[in-house]
Hints:
With 469 residues, the chain is mostly helical.
Amino acid sequence: xxxxxxxxxxxxxxxxxxxxxxxxxxxxxxxxxxxxxxxxxxxxxxxxxxxxxxxxxxxxxxxxxxxxxxxxxxxxxxxxxxxxxxxxxxxxxxxxxxxxxxxxxxxxxxxxxxxxxxxxxxxxxxxxxxxxxxxxxxxxxxxxxxxxxxxxxxxxxxxxxxxxxxxxxxxxxxxxxxxxxxxxxxxxxxxxxxxxxxxxxxxxxxxxxxxxxxxxxxxxxxxxxxxxxxxxxxxxxxxxxxxxxxxxxxxxxxxxxxxxxxxxxxxxxxxxxxxxxxxxxxxxxxxxxxxxxxxxxxxxxxxxxxxxxxxxxxxxxxxxxxxxxxxxxxxxxxxxxxxxxxxxxxxxxxxxxxxxxxxxxxxxxxxxxxxxxxxxxxxxxxxxxxxxxxxxxxxxxxxxxxxxxxxxxxxxxxxxxxxxxxxxxxxxxxxxxxxxxxxxxxxxxxxxxxxxxxxxxxxxxxxxxxxxx
Length: 469
């Protein structure tokens, strides 16, 4: 019984001891000690905690969770402290490297007096404003910075020693550079590319001017007056060009938009083949539009390109559909011809022509085959070869519309004109033969050709007459 009573007192004591450890752990973050000391104390708290015995059962979970919460807080603090330290060291390294780069540029600068003054500001920043870096880099950085400082001080002494001659030399150099800018202004530039080159050259000259050291004090006012005047002239010429360029931009944007509208209109038209040539001309016109602001040009070009692609895709689709249609028509036409050939005796030519005309466009071979069958039917009915051809043509004219007839008349008239000229030439050639030439083979050939052509001429005249009725 006595042992049990002691255990109960120990449990309460353990609880109080653990509460004290939690308070120590909480205050550890705020102590102004080194991180190493804080960490050792933290480890000691952990070890002591686990040496303390159990606490009352009803307090066990709460006291444990509380302890773990503050353990986590300390680890977060530890992590952040290290992270911030690393960030700070890296930041300081970056800053010092930038200062070294700036100092190296000062060495190259022709204005030794200005370089010296600026280096003094950098030196102050290096010593008083930027913190330390890692030990392994700090020594090397300081050495490099000090070496640059010695060189800048040396240049300053050299400048002070030869100040008068250096100032005159600087003045001459600056005047020469200003003269280069004057020449640049006079040079005519008509497009953005030429102006970009001019701007680049101007900026380079201006940079050299700024790096060139001071001029004699008695020449300073005249120099600056000249400088301001020339720089003003340059910017004025630049502003005039780009002001006009904006106007050109607006005009070219409108031209692009008009071409886009044209393509949209032509794309909606059903007669795509007719519009194809116009679209190609529009594409060529598009290439001639220049200059246009890059972003607007990209936007308009994508829209224009898509419209043109859609237009030609539509043409390709129509062609593909046309090929399928022709193939289907040919199949129907071939089947139709087979039916005719199997029923020649029962054929009504008038009806056949009407049905044939309804079967769409035909290729030359199929049409020739059809005419051959009809000619045979006509000859079998008792007509001569010539009369069959005439009758066939009569049937063909009956199924032609006015447009087809007019087209056929034009072609026949052209053929008639050629034949009349040929007959006229042949008849003229007959005058070169005399009575003794009656048995001449060439003469006989001329007579045959004249007769043959006249017969064709009669036939053509008859066909034209039929077409006109």
